[in-house]
Design goal:
Helix content: 40-55%
Structural class: alpha/beta
InterPro entries: Aldolase_TIM, Elp3/MiaA/NifB-like_rSAM, FeFe-hyd_HydE_rSAM, HydE/PylB-like, rSAM, rSAM_sf
Organism: Parasutterella secunda
Order of helices and strands: HHHEEHEHEHEHHEEHEHEHHEHHEH
Strand content: 5-15%
Pfam family, one: Radical_SAM
Distance between the termini: 42 Å
Cofactor: [4Fe-4S] cluster
Keywords: Iron, Iron-sulfur, Metal-binding, S-adenosyl-L-methionine
CATH topology: TIM Barrel
Number of strands: 11
Number of helices: 15
Length: about 375
């Protein structure tokens, strides 16, 4: 059997290799995996970490995903929707504080009022953030669920920045049975093949396409996670956003429990590092959920190959109501405090924050010639 030290030197990996890397628990082997992923990231995507200022502008959702704290049937969470001016002000703050990009996220809706509202917000953000430092305006990542191709195209045009246009739409798991278990609401409002079609539509509409999975779902195996990585490859993704499965008080899966936190953290870091080794030129975000498991969790994500971080710049008064999982960190921090903290913590990993930079995926650049 090959050693971990031998496997991490490879550039091509068998399923057996991937499962072996995902299964690492020995501290010495874990250190070898971490260093290999960090070094591979340095070689392929550089020493920079890119900001995506996260604006969670509404927790109103029309869907009932069983794992989610803001699902439609959770009647204990106060619902909110930020107005246009508040969202735009947050975006302008990001631009003035040298963030190259933001991420707009909300619960999933498909009604015309919502679609047109987002369109208007995108146009205004672009108009207000073009500057000598950001000649194309802020980069925009949208995380607004499944929409039609026509809606994706409408939003792409409104963003005004085709070289900084991204969409994050996680498929959560490539195991169809697990996917259905996560979404077994009446009418099967989500399907895995439909999700893959939406990702194809995003590619057609010109987005840098991002997806990802939850790690440690009850019933998930290492073989499932290996197939998730193979699915990342098959979809030819430009960026990955994935994190640990953490239960939520408002969800419908509390009775199924979750992995012990230390083991879940180890598995999550293994998944990040292995993905970096297998697909070296993509952007990988250090999920805030890592920090819910362990202090300095996001920094550990960076040490295992992540090169994107998403500081929460949502107004603090409503931030507590956008809890997709329990114990979400940084709810009470002001954006300016988060900024200072992140600069220091990212530098502690040996990386540098790239300011006034779109931070587009190198994989996307290689794929498109940009």
């Amino acid at each position: 059997m090959k050693t971990i030290a031998e496997i991490v030197k490879q550039t091509e990996f068998s399923n057996e290799d991937i499962i072996r890397l995902l299964s690492v628990t020995d501290p010495e082997e874990a250190a070898i995996l971490q260093k290999a992923a960090y070094d591979r990231a340095t070689q392929t995507v550089g020493n920079n970490v890119y900001y995506r200022g996260l604006i969670e502008f509404s927790n109103i959702c029309t869907l009932d995903c069983r794992y989610c704290g803001i699902r439609k049937s959770n009647h204990n969470v106060p619902r909110y929707e930020l107005d246009k001016n508040t969202i735009v002000e947050a975006a302008i703050w990001a631009a003035q504080n040298h963030y190259g990009s933001i991420c707009l996220q909300s619960g999933e809706r498909r009604d015309p009022k919502f679609i047109n509202f987002v369109t208007d917000v995108l146009r205004t953000i672009h108009e207000k953030t073009v500057s000598p430092e950001l000649p194309h305006g802020l980069g925009i990542t949208l995380s607004l669920g499944e929409q039609t191709l026509e809606v994706y195209q409408q939003w792409a045009q409104a963003s005004g920045n085709p070289i900084g246009l991204r969409y994050l739409l996680r498929f959560e798991t490539s195991n169809p049975k697990l996917f259905d278990h996560l979404h077994n609401a009446p009418g099967r409002e989500k399907g895995l093949e439909r999700r893959y079609q939406a990702l194809a539509d995003l590619r057609q509409a010109g987005y840098q396409v991002g997806s990802g999975v939850m790690i440690g779902i009850p019933g998930q195996t290492l073989e499932d996670l290996c197939q998730d990585i193979r699915t990342f490859q098959k979809l030819d993704l430009d960026m990955i956003g994935m994190g640990p499965y953490i239960t939520s008080d408002g969800a419908d899966m509390l009775g199924e429990g979750m992995m012990e936190e230390k083991a879940l953290m180890r598995l999550s870091l293994n998944m990040i590092a292995t993905t970096r080794l297998v697909i070296p030129d993509i952007n990988i975000a250090a999920a805030t959920a890592l920090h819910a498991l362990e202090e300095n969790g996001r920094e550990k994500g960076i040490l295992h190959g992540c090169n994107v971080i998403m500081p929460n710049i949502t107004p603090r008064l409503v931030r507590k109501n956008y809890q997709l999982y329990a114990n979400k960190p940084f709810i009470e921090q002001e954006p300016s405090d988060t900024n200072h903290y992140l600069q220091h913590s990212i530098q502690s990993t040996g990386r540098e924050v790239a300011l006034n930079v779109l931070g587009s995926s190198k994989h996307w650049k290689n794929r498109t010639g940009h």
